[in-house]
Amino acid sequence: MNSKEKAITERFSAAVDWVISNKKEKWKASIAEKLGMTPSNFSEILHFRICVSTEVLADFCVLYNVNPIWILTGTGSLYYRFDSGIESVTLKDGNVNYKRNIEAGEKILERQILPVYNMHAGGLLSLFNHPDMYEPTDYISIPDIGLSDGAMLTFGDSMYPLIKPGDIIVYRQLKDILNNIFWGELYLLSYDLEGEEYIVTKYIHKSDVEGCIKLVSHNPNHLPKDIPISKINALAQIKASVRFFSTGRSN
What we know:
Elements: H1 3-21, H2 28-34, H3 39-46, H4 54-64, H5 68-73, E1 86-92, E2 95-102, E3 105-112, E4 114-118, H6 124-129, E5 138-140, E6 150-153, E7 168-174, E8 186-193, E9 196-206, E10 212-216, E11 225-228, E12 232-242
Parallel strand pairs: 4-6
Antiparallel strand pairs: 1-2, 2-3, 4-5, 6-7, 7-12, 8-9, 8-12, 9-10, 10-11
């Protein structure tokens, strides 16, 4: 069990204690039964000997009105305060789905819990192909962001002042590189130059050089660069960025 898994399991255990103390259940064995678990296996989780699974966590949050974001990230409140129109909450593979009845009809509002990676170690292509090999430094949730695959701590000043080193960008991987580029938009990409992988955040423009794209920075001190499309080995659309203003924040 790594440190992130242990922290999630510890918060799950604290939520179980909260359920008991608020008399939602009298015994922990009752919780285990409703979750379809044996008391012994449930006890293994509560004593941090095994991790709580996504399925168990999802069922627990729905049963006892517990905030899954708090268990996964430690942010917000433990108790999930539903308004009268919200019917249910489901959690699967890091996604939290809120099903709400509104006057205009039924609407699904999805909030994803996204892993945040530090790409000073490893490569972008490796991360996209083998995400399980990389341990996130943290998790982040942004409402109404749409489908996304992860987030990343930025480095370098090529997009300054739009994005500065230490900010977080949220991305969605694009597998069809040739057909999914919208010219002039902002992308996270990696490309190979003489056997070395470069990871950059750039605007992608059309190039006058056949078979190439033009990488354009926001920072005027960084000149545009034409690179062959064939050299791009990973591409992701940037969905959002999170700016940190605190000068004391460490990366």
